[in-house]
Amino acid sequence: MNAPAGVWELNGVLDLESIPGLWVEMANRIRSRDKLDVSLARVERASSAALALLLQGLEESRKVKCQLRYVDIPEDLLALARVSNVEKLLLS
């Protein structure tokens, strides 16, 4: 199933190996839009590197004034964000 227009869908495993390439693509998408929704519905597994990616995305979006929103965040990633005291940042 394809993501709706204006939605970037991440999938698979988000870990130290996959994050560098994803960051390049995420940064480019953030810099080229006023608004971007990122769906994590198809993420199979996410490490702390994934959390760092999402937080860096928020920082980049603030710099370039892009409205960035994460949707369908997997519970394991939300739990990691909760423990790291950044859950509210991801959900805002």
Descriptive notes:
- With 92 residues, the chain is α/β, with parallel strands linked by helices.
- It has a single domain, classed as STAS domain (Transcription Regulator spoIIAA, 2-Layer Sandwich).
- The protein is 48% helix and 27% strand.
- The protein contains four helices and three strands.
- The chain has helices spanning 19-31, 48-64, 75-83, 87-91, and strands at 7-14, 35-46, 67-71.
- Strands 1-2-3 form a three-stranded parallel sheet, covered by helices on one side.
- Helix 2 (48-64) links the parallel strand 2 and strand 3 (67-71).
- Helix 1 (19-31) packs parallel to helix 2 (48-64).
- The relative contact order is 0.19.
- It comes from Thiolapillus brandeum.
- Residues 9-86 form the MlaB-like STAS domain.
- This is MlaB-like STAS domain-containing protein.
- Pfam families: STAS_2.
- InterPro entries: MlaB-like_STAS (IPR058548), STAS_dom_sf (IPR036513).
What key phrases describe this protein's structure?
single chain; 92 residues; alpha/beta; Transcription Regulator spoIIAA; 4 helices; 48% helix
CATH architecture: 2-Layer Sandwich
CATH superfamily: STAS domain
Compute the gyration radius: what is it? 12 Å
Q: Characterize the largest beta sheet: strand count, sense, and whether it forms a barrel.
A: 3 strands, parallel
CATH topology: Transcription Regulator spoIIAA
- Helix/strand/pairing class, anyone? alpha/beta
- Quantity of strands, as a count: 3
Strand content: 25-35%
**Largest sheet, order of strands side by side?**
1-2-3
Q: What's the CATH class, please?
A: Alpha Beta
Helix share bin? 40-55%
**Which overall shape is indicated by the principal axes computed on the Cα atoms?**
globular
Model regions low in confidence, pLDDT < 50 over at least 5 residues: none
Mean pLDDT: 93
**Gap from first CA to last CA:** 26 Å
InterPro entries: MlaB-like_STAS, STAS_dom_sf
Domain MlaB-like STAS: 9-86
Protein name: MlaB-like STAS domain-containing protein
